[in-house]
Amino acid sequence: MRDDVSGLTLLGKTRPEYPTRVDPGVLETFANKFVHREYEVVMITDEFTSLCPVTGQPDYGRIELRYVPADKCIESKSLKYYLFSYRQEPAFMETVVNRILDDLVEASYPRRMNVTGRFKARGGISIEVSAEYVQT
Question: Which of 26, 71, 75, 82 is least surrounded, with the fewest CB atoms within 10 Å of its CB?
Answer without folding.
Answer: 71
